[in-house]
């Protein structure tokens, strides 16, 4: 599969088989993330791998935070459903910004982001998604973890800024492509 085929063929997977992902495959995914382009070569990404017994604790922590927000009238969107997906994924990798600080009680969207670092981290995550596809794994890029920001940072013992998480596993579904806007809507030629 060439790069353009991989980009066009990648799908967000929300159903995973009950099969472990090897440490070799996880390392290959992490190495792909580390090879991403990085503004000013800052390489701001930091990864925390959660699997096996820690996975259940991670999901319990996320669900408790989501329930608490919901009790206070916060619209949690798809966060509960995402927690269920994470519960069935053999591996979830959290991605942190090494240069961004986590301030307890302050959600990340209230802080000023270092735009260059966040863009570099996005490139690292995309590399990880494409590497997973190449290894026969499915993946789901997750931002709903931000609903449990403080609790997950505490659980993972991180003082860095959490950007996202990505769940990985062998896909148990084959979703079709999602609709995309035509280039005429998203690109301007001068």
Describe the protein in words:
The chain is 42% helix and 17% strand. The chain is an alpha+beta fold and 190 residues long. The chain has a single domain (19-173), classed as NADH Oxidase (3-Layer(aba) Sandwich). The chain has a four-stranded antiparallel β-sheet, sandwiched between helices. Helix 3 runs antiparallel to helix 4. The chain is globular, with a radius of gyration of 17 Å. Mean pLDDT is 92; it is low at 109-113.
Outline:
Helices cover 42% and strands 17% of the residues. With 190 residues, the protein is of the alpha+beta class.
- Strand neighbour order, sheet with most strands: 1-2-4-3
Structural class by sheet pairing and helices: alpha+beta
Number of domains: 1
Q: Tally of extended strands?
A: 4
Mean pLDDT: 92
Cα distance spanning the termini: 33 Å
Helix content: 40-55%
CATH H-level superfamily title: NADH Oxidase
The CATH class turns out to be Alpha Beta
- The CATH topology is given as NADH Oxidase
Compute the CA-based radius of gyration.
17 Å
Give the biggest beta sheet: 4 strands, antiparallel
Helices and strands, in N-to-C order? HHEHHEHEHEH
CATH structural architecture: 3-Layer(aba) Sandwich
Low-pLDDT ranges:
109-113
In what range is the share of β-strand residues? 15-25%
Number of helices: 7
Shape: globular
């Amino acid at each position: 599969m060439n790069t353009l085929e991989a980009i066009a063929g990648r799908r967000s997977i929300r159903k995973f088989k009950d099969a472990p992902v090897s440490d070799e495959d996880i390392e290959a995914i992490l190495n792909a993330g580390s090879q991403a382009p990085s503004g000013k070569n800052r390489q701001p990404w930091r990864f925390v791998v959660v699997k096996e017994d820690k996975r259940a604790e991670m999901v319990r922590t996320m669900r408790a935070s989501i329930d608490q927000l919901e009790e206070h009238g916060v619209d949690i969107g798809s966060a509960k459903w995402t927690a269920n997906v994470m519960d069935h994924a053999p591996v979830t990798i959290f991605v942190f910004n090494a240069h961004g600080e986590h301030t307890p009680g302050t959600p990340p969207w209230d802080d000023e982001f270092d735009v260059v670092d966040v863009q570099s981290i996005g490139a690292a995550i995309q590399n990880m998604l494409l590497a997973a596809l190449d290894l026969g794994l499915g993946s789901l890029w997750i931002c709903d973890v931000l609903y449990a920001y403080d609790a997950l940072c505490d659980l993972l013992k991180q003082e860095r800024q959490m950007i996202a998480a990505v769940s990985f596993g062998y896909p148990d579904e084959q979703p079709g492509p999602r609709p995309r806007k035509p280039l005429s809507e998203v690109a301007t030629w001068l």
